Amino acid sequence: QVHLIESGGGLVQTGGSLRLSCVASGRTISADAMGWFRLGPGKALEFVAGINWNGSTTAYTDSVKGRFTISRDNAKNMVNLQMDSLEPEDTAVYYCGAASFRYRDVVARISTSYDVWGQGTQVLVSS
Is 97 exposed, middle or buried (0-12, 13-18, 19+ CB in 10 A)? Predict the structure, then answer.
């Protein structure tokens, strides 16, 4: 069974940057689609970014396009989310998820597609 652990969250001012990491243990995630979701205060769980098994396909929610970049390193069994030009609206707990799509060139935008989740990491953007 795979376990996902997120890190890299914290407090940053508007316009700042953070890099979130999600490291997997227990098995390889190299065949999985991976994604980042967030849960903001008073909001529903929201898809942020997703990546297919080999990194050739990515997807983003409109509000983060051009500011966030998802990437993966299958040799290190990890996925990253580079977040630049952060805004107060990005304040949320960010969760990493793994979807067992087995080498399919698919990015999963729906939370129910994901089989495993991390515990989350808090991002707080001050104005």
Answer: buried
